[in-house]
Amino acid sequence: MPLIQREPEHLILLRNSLRQFIEKEVPREKVNDWDRNDHFPQETYAKLCALGVTSLTVPEEYGGSGLDIVSTIAVIEELASRSLGLASGFIYCSCYAGLNILDVASEQQKKDLLPKVAEGKLMFSYGISEPDVGADVASVKTTAVKDGDSLIINGSKRWCSGAKITDYIYTLVRTGPAEERYKNLSLVLIPPTSNGVIIEPQQTLGQKGTGGTCDVTFNDVKVPLNHLVGEEDGWNKGWEKIVRTGLDVEKIEVAALAYGIAKAAVEDAWVYAQDRVQFGKSIATYQSIRHMLADAKAKLEACRLMTYEGASIADQQIADPARMSMIKLFVTETAVEIVLSCQKVLGAYGYSRDFCMERYVRDILAMPILGGSSAIQKNNIANRLNLPK
Amino acid sequence: MKVLVPIKRVVDYNVKVRPLNDESGVDLSNVKMSINPFCEIAVEEAVRLKEAGIASEIIAVTIGTQASQEQLRTALALGADRAVLIEVTENVEPLGIAKLLSKLCDQEKPELIILGKQAIDGDNNQTGQMLAALLGCSQATFASELKINDGVATVTREIDGGLQTITVNLPAVVTTDLRLNEPRYASLPNIMKAKKKELSVIDASSLGVDYASRLTTIKVELPPSRAAGVKVESVAELVSKLKNEAKVI
Known about the structure:
Helix content of chain A is 48%, strand content 14%. By secondary structure, chain A is of the alpha+beta class. Helices cover 27% and strands 27% of the residues of chain B. The longest helix of chain B is centred in the N-terminal third of the chain and has 15 residues, at 37-51. The interface between A and B is medium-sized, with 18 and 16 residues.
């Protein structure tokens, strides 16, 4: 098991550079505007990519800086602590596109697509859930059939994050009879701009400016056969591709988002408590506030340790799905507790749109739900640890 | 042209510093440290000179403990070619710094030494001037523009009441003001490249100069908090208060 160690020097420098970038290019007022207008900041995202951060999931032979999950998670944390939109864009590129292509695509697809990831010029959405398919992923109904050199796709997907801004929907489709469940699933890259694709963004409580959480319908959508992930070898291999490390790392990505938001909430509450004076002294001097802040700090530290433990496990390619589920469960649920207690420190201001806290509250509530809900993580933990049913 | 860029590790400008309980100094425990912002501008200017084909090599140098390697590595990630840490364990004052730097200049023979006009911790604004004096070379302080042509630097200086443009012969010491440039962010590929660049460590005592402190810090305390103001009803009342209470008119 990895031991806690000091972060490597390149990560310390990368964090410094990102913090400078965020300080100058991503002021709070801008982020509040993006949130209110549900706007994904393409221009700022392009400037972020110019720092080369999306190359962290791309090996050097494909134009990247070498696979480094710990640093990838650190970038998510730093971005999420200011802008969930930028953090999401980074994930669509580095993780959804980068990690999946690296893990399960064909050699030709890696050569074609990974250099684009390294430059920050390729984003994927996940097209896994459907209106009637949530946790039971193997029951997807969207179909793809071969038609000469093409695939014809029909069906619909739900909760496609970022489909308004991404280049491909990484779509799980059925490529044979439904009763065979796991045995005839495949993954297809479908450009959201293809003929026959209808995208309908859902209205959500938070996660504004992240490119939308969309319903996507495919009506006789035609894509070239080489859009099959893994090309010919990928036919009916969707299940084994999707249960590989991709979804396990996604749990840590969500944990990093939750940790980043919670960290920002604690920082804001920490400063507010010292500035706010009531009954002649700052509220930070009252024990009830001190205890709330101390609890938040302690929980935050636990979240940090678990998140980076998970990243480190992923970096070492150790398969430990039960632990990954524990991390996703604990960090996201604890981050909700942290943010809600920090909101209390700000009193009514924590409920006002004039302060970032209100946004943290809306965004953090999604974290125990997306990327496999807490209930599913609990099932995973009990099942993976062989608790008799 | 070889360029030497002395930099300093300081408390990050975003940190609200507090005195230690015993008032012996500033509390530096768990405080984020960064390159002094003026030094970062100096590194950026040197890198731009190199990109313009004027500078051939950029050497970043600092005087400090092993911890200062982080700031040197940052300078390397921003584009410096190699770095030198002159290692000390104690606090060194501007004259000591200037002496140590002048020894390094004797070895390296840079044609341009570019550094921040001051550091945001001590705000001394002395090192550049002292170094030029020790080297017996020209100096151009508070630069907001720098052009180099045929061994001559044309420097626009920010002075009280406006700008002054001077020319100095190289070698010269230039100190940077805030408006000289806007430093870039260290990109990931450059951070990775910086890992492989040379960072050498020199023991300060081996340079044979006296850099012992000549000053004693008696006490570090917060400035007194300002008393609340008052609202006046009329200009006449204001003038009367200025005359009779503040006694400034």
